[in-house]
Amino acid sequence: MSITLDLSRATASAPRPPVNLSGLTREGLRQALIDADICPPDKARMRASQVWGWIHHFGVTDFAAMSNVAKDTQAKLAAAFTLARPEIVERQVSKDGTRKWLIRTAPGIEVEAVYIPDVGRAGALCVSSQVGCTLNCTFCHTGTQALVRNLTAAEIVAQVQVARDDLEEWPSPKEDRRLSNIVFMGMGEPLYNLDHVSDAIDIISDNEGIALSRRRITVSTSGVVPMLEPLGTRTQAMLAISLHATNDALRDVLVPLNKKYDLAQLMDGIRAYPGISNARRVTFEYVMLKGINDSPDEARALVKLIEGIPAKVNLIPFNPWPGTDYECSDWKTIERFAAILNKAGYASPIRTPRGRDILAACGQLKSESEKIRASVRRAEKAAA
Ligand code: SF4
What is the average per-residue pLDDT within 53-69? Predict the structure, then answer.
């Protein structure tokens, strides 16, 4: 996932913008209504429920559209709060239907979200949880950007709202959704931002709102072992592990966090993940790197490593980026790898790269977006 930053316009003296109600948890919304004197505390739960439905079931962005809220209350709400969506800086649609939005959530904070049709039940939205990343996985160009800050729950939910606006998916349909799954596989390590990720999942999964089942929300981690149990307990989300290697020596290189939490600790943590079962399998992500991790021996080692864990393995053909020494495995090698996993009883789909023409495929985003923005800045400078 690509995130680009321009902090030049962030000023310390800027007035605080009004609170955006559409990013608050239910409890946060209730408290905000009390604090702004919209209603007395004993009526706040009911009022919050009413406003919640308008925001998260109907997707309204204007208090005047809340037709069962009295006009004077609408006016008080509009004076104290906003429902505004973040600015969409750029929208692109790929030949294969993949959509990508560059979203400015705050001055200088820009996030890309990618919608991929025909993934999951109908279509998956890949969202980010941090601006930048601290983990420096060596195959991941998007992670070379230094961490700026965690995204708030509101900024995570905003990625979903923007996608649903674009897909015209309001009010929340009971069935036949186009956006059926959410994956936290964008920029950042979600388990370093669990409070906001957990609040965002509470908002997205609420039955009187967007109402996406928690079983259709997947959180991907590179292996922050101590946070696995809290993730499962707090969110009941599906778990994905960015694995990529079957021995510590190689994983130390590909996913340096492995030096802190090695494979033995990681596997113990996964086995203890709350709710894991055949109906709630763990997804292991495995990027296919030519001559690095793609041999039949490694496929067999992978089978051994995940033995006994209800799991599937996503094989991800590597998307090269400028300056990387890694190459993508040959197609035949990937198929041979998949066959060994399949034979051992693990579903192991080979993920087709999506949205390459709009630079939305895994690992392509940051480099190309930053290059484009750098060239725009150069052009602006030259024109000035
Ligand atoms: S793969 Fe994820 S955790 Fe690793 S550097 Fe990239 S964004 Fe960060």
Answer: 96
